[in-house]
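explain this chain.
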Amino acid sequence: MPSQAQIQTYTTYTQSTFPELLQRFRAALVRLGCTDQQVVDWVVSISLPESEDDGFGDVYASPVTLMPMGTQNIVCEDIEITLYTELAVPSTEELPSWVGFTLPIDTSELQANPTSSYDTEAGRAIWHILLELAHTFPELGAYFTDEWQENQVWRTLVEKAGDPWVFEMGIFPRSLAQYFATVPDGYKGTVIDGAFGFALSNRWQQLPWTEA
């Protein structure tokens, strides 16, 4: 079976802000070169469930092509929009609700074989997508994770427990720097406007933010 990775970003929402967040995600997809009108129309057609007891998860269940400017095209297997209204760790505080936006990707599109590092051009394309999503949703940033790391960064940061270094490439805002203070071996970083970018260097033929 092909291995899957995903690009993920998250933001808090309320019933009143949810439609505007969908509009922001739609605009980000358009800036990333999505030209499929069905996709962009689907994003803004989503509505919240009538009751918090109802499960929520909506999927655009067809491939979606992104064309980040100046890089290779990235084909996402689908688009997933998911609400997170409860945390695994109990809290006496009233906690916000979160919405996650996920772009699953078949990693065979990004590397020559399952054991090789990700191609240089694929890395640049993923980096460009992360920059766009982290700018659009700056609360937690945006992350490229493998199939075993899905949602782990979000859970660690929101629950304030565990190790947040569970991504292959990510961008997080400076406001969260305290959670990433100790950089593990193997990660290389860069500074961007209002944020930091890091990548697990052995997973990439070239660090995506560097010039050839």
The chain has four helices and ten strands. Strands lie at 4-13, 57-60, 64-66, 74-76, 79-84, 97-106, 142-146, 169-173, 187-192, 195-200. The longest strand covers residues 4-13. The two ends are 33 Å apart (CA to CA).
